[in-house]
Design brief:
- Chain A: It holds the Pfam family PadR.
- Chain A: Residues 91-172 form the Transcription regulator PadR C-terminal domain.
- Chain A: Residues 179-206 are annotated as: Disordered.
- The complex is a heterodimer of chains A (206) and B (252).
- Chain A is mainly alpha-helical and 206 residues long.
- Chain A has 8 helices and 2 strands.
- Chain A folds into 2 domains: 3-81, Winged helix-like DNA-binding domain superfamily/Winged helix DNA-binding domain (Arc Repressor Mutant, subunit A), CATH 1.10.10; 93-180.
- Helix content of chain A is 64%, strand content 5%.
- In chain A, a hairpin with a 5-residue loop joins strand 1 (53-58) and strand 2.
- Chain B has a single domain, classed as Rossmann fold.
- Helix content of chain B is 30%, strand content 25%.
- In chain B, strand 4 and strand 5 form a beta hairpin.
- In chain B, helix 3 (115-125) packs across helix 4 (130-143) and helix 3 (115-125) packs parallel to helix 5 (159-170).
- The chains are: A mainly alpha (206), B alpha/beta (252).
- Chains A and B meet through helix 6 and helix 7 of A and helix 7, strand 9 and strand 10 of B.
Chain lengths: 206, 252
Amino acid sequence: MSIRHGLLALLERGPRYGSRLRTEFESRTGSTWPLNVGQVYTTLSRLERDGMVAQDGEDDAGHALYSITEDGRTELRSWFETPVDRSSPPRDELAIKLAMAVGAPGVDIRAVIQSQRSHTLKAMQDYTRLKAQALADVPSDRDEVAWLLVVEQLIFQAEAEARWLDHCESRLVRLAEAAATEPAPSSAPAARTGARTAASRLRARS
Amino acid sequence: MSSSVPSPSAGPPAPVLELRALTRTHGSGIAEVHALRGIDLSVRAGELVAVMGPSGSGKSTLLTLAGGLDTATSGQVVIEGQDISALGPRGMAALRRRSVGYVFQDYNLIPALTAAENIALPRELDGVSVRKARKEAVAALEEMRLAEIADRFPDEMSGGQQQRVAIARALVGDRRLVLADEPTGALDSETGESVLALLRMRCDQGAAGVMVTHEPRYAAWADRVVFLRDGTIVDQTLSSGAESLLPAEGAR
């Protein structure tokens, strides 16, 4: 998660002090990714080191104010213009767990799938309830709109996971049926024995 | 729209629908197929339950048995305290008119009747005067912000409007149980969501709902999600408030 760019985006609206940045970050994202003040100040000092923000005096209450620099604005614009990198997927614990569960002794992979599906659906129910609350009144200010987008992202992500779990289950059933009706091949094809990365598989196919 | 938590003052409400050790077997001997193998499920007023599972898991059988459209091989279906197997054909017909509403994937509105007439029909069949039934139907449409389509025929409505009219019809009069079979099946996602929001609202107002769906996004509107596999319930989610999920009331 890019706290760095999030803070730059908030600073573009004018000079702010650390704990106010934290509050604004959280109200924009509905406290989905809580920040502590320490993280905010660490990030600010790195941004300052890189010339993207500068200290800008104090407010009436004596809070040290930070403001965005021209370099900071350039960095922020390029963040908005550049797609988030999806070519090196982050580690996904569930994918790893299911991969390990295939053929693992004493593990019922369908039970693993079902308990996850239940858990994921439960999370979706909770998110959907939050979303229904958010929609009860038409979202008006930008924090409310932003929060709605975030909670819907959580729903979409959970939905993708639930659908993938359904898919895994029916895939396993079909493979088991196929294995039961077809004789086992005498030897594994050589090309499939070596470990290959997803990227090398993609290259091989094109 | 109010919160989805039923009022706690009344204590735990009696179940509107109870399925007890319900089984349904088709055929016999070598051709025997067990569509349902001992289902226990109870649905209270104010509760929306989603039923999920792969095709052939028994979802639709469960719904048709609960609505009295099919007869169980063994076990009981109890609707508002009444075992429906004790009812004769006439009693069953009355129960379906008065207590149970069905919502189908393809809406099933009567094409020759307007929205208001479709909703009024089950009440008229039940002996309510035409005028009163019409009044109730228009009130139901108003409540659902559909007043402007009261006099439209089904072919003059969008799919989403037809489905919302079907939900109004399912819950007109004193009917408190709505059984919905893939109610969002033919709708795009935003329209499907508006149908679910309406079903949710009707349950919040005191109806009990059971909905079969294969879409996690719609199932997530329910209080409880029941998973079927091979005719048995393999798992269900426990309902709880959203508070458990996110820190504090950071949302607003």
